[in-house]
Amino acid sequence: MVALLEGPVFPDARAAFFAAAPDPLDLAGAPAVDLSVRIGSLTLHTPLMPASGCFGPELGALIPVAELGATVTKTVFGSARGGNPVHRLTEIPAGMVNSVGIPSHGPVGYLATLHPRYAALDAPTVISVGGHRTSEYAPVVAALGEHGAAYELNVSCPNLDRDGTDIGSDPAAIREVVAAVRLVTDKPIIVKLPVLVASIAACARAAEEAGADAVCVANSIPAMPLDALTRRPILGNVIGGLSGPSIKPIVLRLVWLASRAVQIPVIACGGVGSVDDALDYFSVGASAVQVGTASFGRPFVAVEIARGLRQRCLDAGVGSIRELLELDAPR
Amino acid sequence: MVALLEGPVFPDARAAFFAAAPDPLDLAGAPAVDLSVRIGSLTLHTPLMPASGCFGPELGALIPVAELGATVTKTVFGSARGGNPVHRLTEIPAGMVNSVGIPSHGPVGYLATLHPRYAALDAPTVISVGGHRTSEYAPVVAALGEHGAAYELNVSCPNLDRDGTDIGSDPAAIREVVAAVRLVTDKPIIVKLPVLVASIAACARAAEEAGADAVCVANSIPAMPLDALTRRPILGNVIGGLSGPSIKPIVLRLVWLASRAVQIPVIACGGVGSVDDALDYFSVGASAVQVGTASFGRPFVAVEIARGLRQRCLDAGVGSIRELLELDAPR
Amino acid sequence: MVSVRPRSAVPRPQPVWDDAEVLVHEPVGERYRRLVLACDTIARTAQAGQFLMITVPPSGGDTILLPRPMAIHRRRPATPARPATAHGPATAATPGTVELIYGTVGRGTRALAAVPVGGNLQLTGPLGRGFEFPAATRTALLIGRGVGVCGVMGAAEDAAAAGIRTTMVLSGRNPQQLLGRTDCAELGVTVLEATDHDGSSDLAALKTRLLTEFDGTTPGRTPPDVVMVCGAGVLARLAAELGADWGVTVQASLEAHMACGLGYCHGCAAPVSTDPSVEGPLVCADGPVFDAVLPVV
Amino acid sequence: MVSVRPRSAVPRPQPVWDDAEVLVHEPVGERYRRLVLACDTIARTAQAGQFLMITVPPSGGDTILLPRPMAIHRRRPATPARPATAHGPATAATPGTVELIYGTVGRGTRALAAVPVGGNLQLTGPLGRGFEFPAATRTALLIGRGVGVCGVMGAAEDAAAAGIRTTMVLSGRNPQQLLGRTDCAELGVTVLEATDHDGSSDLAALKTRLLTEFDGTTPGRTPPDVVMVCGAGVLARLAAELGADWGVTVQASLEAHMACGLGYCHGCAAPVSTDPSVEGPLVCADGPVFDAVLPVV
Ligand SMILES: Cc1cc2nc3c(=O)[nH]c(=O)nc-3n(C[C@H](O)[C@H](O)[C@H](O)COP(=O)(O)OP(=O)(O)OC[C@H]3O[C@@H](n4cnc5c(N)ncnc54)[C@H](O)[C@@H]3O)c2cc1C
Ligand SMILES: Cc1cc2nc3c(=O)[nH]c(=O)nc-3n(C[C@H](O)[C@H](O)[C@H](O)COP(=O)(O)OP(=O)(O)OC[C@H]3O[C@@H](n4cnc5c(N)ncnc54)[C@H](O)[C@@H]3O)c2cc1C
Ligand SMILES: Cc1cc2nc3c(=O)[nH]c(=O)nc-3n(C[C@H](O)[C@H](O)[C@H](O)COP(=O)(O)O)c2cc1C
Ligand SMILES: Cc1cc2nc3c(=O)[nH]c(=O)nc-3n(C[C@H](O)[C@H](O)[C@H](O)COP(=O)(O)O)c2cc1C
Ligand code: FES
Ligand code: FES
């Protein structure tokens, strides 16, 4: 890997956006807006973070990362993986489908190349960890040592010890993964659940009972985009993950069910691209949201949502999102 | 129930459409196009049929039903059910969400009221059968006696004997349902699988091994539409099934996986609204398609697709959809 | 409480699907749009209070999947060409048309608003069970609010044809937005305006006004023989109260989210069943017009 | 085979995001459209062969999620206002602009085509590692096909500024559709046209022609010091063959489906890795310009 950003910084075009961050002094007299959220021992000052795979330290020079609650890395696996053949992604109406396949340099490679660049950003780093057996997660977390502020366990990975169905579709497998990781770290554990499960409530409860500090609901939905003309699969891997606006109504239900099933915070992920999308998820029980697909076209969208949430609270004269939702909700 | 259509028929506005049916005499000299498909002992002359819940005998007066391969009834349950509270459906971008809740008069009520009207139509009737326990399906099929040309088992129903997860998400439960129904009928059995399953291949194989003649892939996807202004659930049941164009890329993958997993025909169902949608499904292995949501706005769409498939074969000078796809597919 | 009206002696017309040309499509005030569609069969057969399912064509990149239910505001059957006679000059044949008025509220009606004059709209109709005057009706009170006026205007047409003396309450937010004034004038219907603007649409105020208007003592002020209502649910209740007071039949047109409009999708069941194993009546097939009575306490 | 070019001594500019005004947006022939965007920083800093990620605004009901990668065809840095002098009249300041040319192929570029002059486009750039002339380059052969011409035009600009004698093959379906003639004339680049129309774009024909053109014996016909190519994959192979024949460096610009353009989404890895545990280079960050060599047999 060559380092991407070598040159001088020309901040002119970005000055206005960076400057737009609300000046704390302006708020004198206004109610104290508290958007902070606790994930285990970690407190995020705002409930906005990027979705795994949809953020990189390269963005540190383009957006005010300090205005995010955390950053989230692309999933790190135990061994080196090259990822999937081309094409690895495509856009379809109201969504994109990706089959990047999670190339990874393993935890050692990650710590050597990417982590220092994450650590240099002004937000806690959530390291996403993957595995193809329930036994593969804990060693990666252990190898990451004390790096990262929290771990997000991506269990939307085929379980090679069983029939290749996702680890996250099986509550027992989730339990095994989380229990093993709990033994090697005291840091917050987030379990990121897949969509294609018989019972999201059972999966979320398995994560909670095994010691997770939060669940993230959900990952992209497996899909198979075809070329309109040739009818051939567009993706080199044939199947990819559908993300973006079209999955939101599906994920809303999962977040609602999960947040009724567990006491730990539920982080919503799926099709968030606006303040209203975020508020929709908060209204069905989410404590925080992740932004994926929307940030490719609008790299600043998560920061904008964080600012927008604060502004809506200020405008409404309330101090928290919960109060805002109560106001919003007509009787 | 009052009978809906009491009055005289005014066929003028429909004459042109009915007349558009290709005249067999016109085809002299053209290759014989054979679109027929076998589902167990039943042969459909064309691979087009409506999706359960999206057709009624009322349409017999509006569209040339004889041009469909079959009709499919709304799901019949063993006991009377009133269905869900309002609203029962809504439209969202690229899809609709319904929580009708499958009101049913039970098999006896169905045979007394609806079945005679289906039987009067010029296409075989596939009766959709549902249940909330694996033991509930066979008695309904038995009660239907010799009526109907085939049975479609809707296993996207919460299993009240277990934790309320869908019967169709559990291969063992699918096996129980199909084996029990197989004992009470010799007619073709189609098993209609849900989307939210860990392994569609395992579910399809369970159906095949227990004696099903076809699988239908898939049902609508559970979702939770919120009112844009109030952020309250739109549906009386909070959760409904998402159907229409936005689920097609998700269902394409399921059809592809299912048709590689079993030898019996796979009937595709999800977002079909055009000849190309149908061909996309055929190209990933489907043998027939069902049309649901698209037919509300365009009641004649399934007939149009059936005609369009035949026309494409004629235009290409081939005799079957398989040959058409081979032509279409560039090397 | 609404209940399904007893089966009528008059058969209902068979719905057809049609590809109807848009003859007029224009704004009506600030909030509404008028559509005049050429559809002979429907113009000839539709009964008062019936509706259409309109398939909204895609607009921009937005595809509308479900057809939208719309009341048939006016029916104008085709007239044949007539040669000049001693009584008047020659007239050309006119096509049969129906007129709709709708408000743009969401994606579907916004896309509908983009359909050009000269374009075509696919539709199914006439649908549902409409209003029907009880035998020997001589006077009628119709109540419509907002676009609900369109739901009852067909009854005003029938009343005019049958010589039934009719009063119509036109209710709405403000005087500028009231629909139906010209139609009522054309049909010889007495209009009572009721607006939020001056408080006259307030339910209690309206009730008092109607009880005075039809006080039963002053000649020409006897209560109507039937009340027909379409609009907000609270108006149906008001009508039911008046009907109970006056001892006359009340017919109310309901709305529901619909997919098929024909009676098979079960999307539109009215929420009136108390037994969970029994479904409420279907607004599209058993209604949209129901008998409205006060719930028994 | 392509490989990542060795790290350059020249630092790459920091990408910025910008909200650039659309100054020109017009058809170019039948298939393409030209966009001129006001973006000072990018016009000043972009290197030859770099690209932008353009966020396509929603058009009609259609929202485009992923930004679209587009080569920077021309860079025109801002010029300050100049007072009249003995040498000439006063000139107004001009803003820094970049010019893009694109073909409308799918949803994204169709929606892009709807952006009006005077509107704004959000974009990130300049991105990627572009073309770089090896030290002491005196002559260069550039090859572009279709919109691929835009990928190499920046190198022609650099060559013109550095006094490098340049020939450019403009390849395309037919003479009317060839892009870049005016640019080449302005930059003093010798043009060789090659079209499918008359068969001159045929790979074998083109190769023979280029080998003759640069036969190494006739004076002024010595092989170029570097070959730079952008367009179809087969052209990169042709260029690599020529480079091998002539013993000179070949740089090829590749395309890939992209989401971020910055190097973190891994959507754009080139399919050149043979070891499944090793990822191919990222077209957006390690390229789009790579060294192209013939595979070792
Ligand atoms: C029998 C009947 C007659 C009607 N007549 C008229 C009329 O003459 N003029 C008029 O302006 N409106 C009429 N309506 C209401 C009209 O159908 C809705 O305003 C329209 O469907 C809204 O669609 P939308 O996409 O703009 O709104 P959205 O809110 O975006 O629609 C979302 C979904 O909800 C449904 N929906 C939303 N509001 C209603 C509603 N009030 N009734 C039924 N479905 C709704 C839509 O059909 C759609 O499926 C009538 C409704 C019924 C049932
Ligand atoms: C570095 C680079 C520079 C480019 N420069 C130019 C240029 O100067 N002029 C020009 O006309 N085109 C250029 N392209 C190609 C251009 O990006 C695509 O034509 C465009 O993305 C197609 O988008 P669409 O939505 O219209 O097509 P669709 O086929 O509908 O797009 C579907 C998806 O595939 C992607 N995609 C499809 N074709 C391509 C392609 N050829 N390259 C990359 N992604 C693709 C789209 O970005 C989108 O995600 C360049 C591509 C790259 C990678
Ligand atoms: C290009 C891309 C790469 C992704 N990589 C990962 C990943 O490495 N690990 C992971 O858990 N999720 C990954 N995801 C899924 C996202 O984190 C997110 O769950 C999903 O995209 C849904 O959110 P969205 O609709 O906001 O995009 C990826 C998504 C995209 C689009
Ligand atoms: C209004 C409505 C009612 C439905 N009722 C049933 C049903 O009774 N039984 C069933 O198996 N599927 C039912 N479905 C699901 C459809 O049969 C079909 O599987 C789904 O809509 C996906 O297909 P589509 O995208 O073509 O609509 C219903 C769908 C809709 C929209
Ligand atoms: S709208 Fe389908 S049953 Fe009434
Ligand atoms: S486009 Fe994201 S890594 Fe290249």
From TrEMBL, chains A, B:
Its EC number is 1.3.-.-. GO terms for molecular function: dihydroorotate dehydrogenase activity. The keyword Oxidoreductase applies. FMN binds at residues 52, 74-75, 154, 192, 244, 270-271, 292-293. Binds 1 FMN per subunit. Transmembrane segments: none annotated. SUPFAM superfamilies: FMN-linked oxidoreductases. Residues 35-311 form the Dihydroorotate dehydrogenase catalytic domain. The active site is at 157 (nucleophile). Catalyzes the conversion of dihydroorotate to orotate. PANTHER family: DIHYDROOROTATE DEHYDROGENASE (FUMARATE), DIHYDROOROTATE DEHYDROGENASE (QUINONE), MITOCHONDRIAL-RELATED. This is Dihydroorotate dehydrogenase.
From TrEMBL, chains C, D:
GO terms for molecular function: 2 iron, 2 sulfur cluster binding; flavin adenine dinucleotide binding; metal ion binding; oxidoreductase activity. Keywords: 2Fe-2S, Electron transport, FAD, Flavoprotein, Iron, Iron-sulfur, Metal-binding, Transport. Residues 15-133 form the FAD-binding FR-type domain. It holds the Pfam family DHODB_Fe-S_bind. This is Dihydroorotate oxidase electron transfer subunit. GO terms for biological process: pyrimidine nucleotide biosynthetic process. Its cofactor is [2Fe-2S] cluster; FAD. FAD binds at residues 108-109. Belongs to the PyrK family. [2Fe-2S] cluster binds at residues 260, 265, 268, 284. PROSITE patterns: FAD_FR. InterPro entries: Cyt_c3_hydrogenase_gsu, Dihydroorotate_DH_ele_sf, Dihydroorotate_DH_Fe-S-bd, FAD-bd_FR_type, FNR_nucleotide-bd, PyrK_electron_transfer, Riboflavin_synthase-like_b-brl. SUPFAM superfamilies: Ferredoxin reductase-like, C-terminal NADP-linked domain (SSF52343), Riboflavin synthase domain-like (SSF63380). Binds 1 [2Fe-2S] cluster per subunit. Binds 1 FAD per subunit. It comes from Cryobacterium arcticum.
